[in-house]
Amino acid sequence: MSSTQSFSSSILNRMSSQTKYWILIIVVVGLAVLWGLQAKNYGYNTNLTPTPTPTRRTGQATKTPVGQTISYTDAVKLYVNSRIQFDAYCQGVPSSLSLKSGSKVMLDNRSGDARTIKVDGRSYYLAGYGFQIITLSSNTLPYTVKIDCGSAINVAQVLLQARIGQ
């Protein structure tokens, strides 16, 4: 046996099992932190959740027709009273709105991270700092549309009401 091997063997023999246990925990935590930092640097999504299959309920959400484009600035002006922003923590602001059935709503992602927004179970992908215009309607009124952001459930609600006099 070499002198280096005997030196490291004697150190290990002198340590208590509790000390060895704590060293192992520190090494494992250190490796987990390094793995997490490396995953973040390379853009890996370490927070994967399955994308649910959209289901249609009484409150239906439909996208703006393909081909219609609007700048972010114009959309903010146009949907000033019917815009829901999602912050870095996936919280909806405002958390509740009251609109007429058939109203258009701007889903506005104010985070640099892409988000999956679910409106009554129907999924919408929003790129980082992206937005999407959808139309909310229901045959049964009043109706409360529930909105989820990623794994955050019920971060916003829209109360749909009847259009009186039309």
Categorize the overall geometry. Answer: elongated
If classified by CATH, what would the architecture of the largest domain be? Answer: Sandwich
Integer average pLDDT:
79
Helicity level: 25-40%
Structural class: alpha+beta
User: Count the helices. How many?
Assistant: 3
- CATH C-level of the largest domain: Mainly Beta
Q: Which strand order does the major sheet show?
A: 1-8-5-2-3
What series of H and E elements makes up the topology?
Answer: HHEHEEEEEEEEE
Can you walk through the features of this model?
This protein is of the alpha+beta class. Strand 6 (115-119) and strand 7 form a beta hairpin. The strands form 2 sheets. Strands 1-8-5-2-3 form a 5-stranded mixed sheet, with helices on one face. The relative contact order is 0.16. The chain has helices at residues 3-14, 17-41, 72-78, and strands spanning 59-63, 83-86, 92-93, 96-100, 103-109, 115-119, 122-126, 131-138, 143-149, 152-161. The radius of gyration is 26 Å and the shape is elongated. Residues 41-66 have low confidence and may be disordered. The chain has 2 domains: 3-41; 59-161, Cupredoxins -  blue copper proteins (Immunoglobulin-like, Sandwich), CATH 2.60.40.420. The protein starts with a helix and ends in a 5-residue tail after the last strand. Helix content is 27%, strand content 35%.
